[in-house]
Amino acid sequence: MANTSDIRNGLCIRYNHDIFKIVEFLHVKPGKGPAFVRTKLKSVTTGKVIDNTFSAGHKIDDVRVETHKFQYLYNDGEFYHFMNESDYSQIRLLEAALDRPDLMKEGEVVTVLINTEDDMPLSVEMPASVILEVTHTEPGVKGNTATNATKPATVETGAIVNVPLFINEGDKIKIETEKGSYKERVK
């Protein structure tokens, strides 16, 4: 058992007969009244995100997890298949367990959280950023750069990302996986 002072991003807890991963949290100490922790929880089984507030000192049931490096192999429409890099065993996960499956290309190494009680995979953590090639984008219009203008671009995984006007087809770009936003062009 843990309490609200142990809350951190990525912590898995048992709440309302389900296992949730803490996506965001904020400790709030108002001038009047008791302190509390505002959290955003994502269900590892359904992918549903809920907001919840815990009062300070509230006991939470944390779930012990192990992290393992897995390589993304392929998607068969319903399941995403991964291979453990240490023993070459394979697992498959539903799309709900993945944070940003549209930014994952084959061969990408990700971190999988595994419940130590029953050895079931809980969720997949992507690297902080990924480098993908732009496969389609409209050409930028010259003289249209007075503001931070952006245009949609399709990358090799099929995801659509807003990029600056100077990005062309064939360019490699770095994308921040947490927000799914353009970070920089890569040479």
Can you tell me about this structure?
This protein has 187 residues and is mainly β. It has 3 domains: 2-62, SH3 type barrels, CATH 2.30.30.30; 65-125, OB fold (Dihydrolipoamide Acetyltransferase, E2P) (Beta Barrel); 129-186, Nucleic acid-binding proteins (OB fold (Dihydrolipoamide Acetyltransferase, E2P), Beta Barrel). The protein has no helices and 16 strands. The strands form 3 sheets. Strands 1-6-2-3-4-5 form a 6-stranded antiparallel beta sheet, with no helix packed on it. Strand 13 and strand 14 (160-164) form a beta hairpin. It is flat. The mean pLDDT is 87.
What would you say about this model in short?
This protein is 0% helix and 54% strand. It is an all-beta fold.
Describe the structure using short key phrases:
single chain, 187 residues, mainly beta, SH3 type barrels, OB fold (Dihydrolipoamide Acetyltransferase, E2P), six-stranded antiparallel β-sheet, five-stranded antiparallel β-sheet, 0% helix, flat
CATH architecture of the largest domain: Roll
As for the number of domains, it is: 3
CATH fold-level label of the largest domain: SH3 type barrels
Indicate the proportion of strand residues. Answer: over 45%
Helix content: under 10%
Overall mean pLDDT score? Answer: 87
Low-pLDDT runs = none
* Strand element count: 16
Task: Report, as a whole number of angstroms, the end-to-end distance.
Answer: 49 Å
The major beta sheet can be summarized as: 6 strands, antiparallel
- Which class of secondary structure composition applies to the elements? mainly beta
Oligomer: single chain
Helical element count? Answer: 0
The secondary-structure element order is: EEEEEEEEEEEEEEEE
Main β-sheet, spatial strand arrangement: 1-6-2-3-4-5
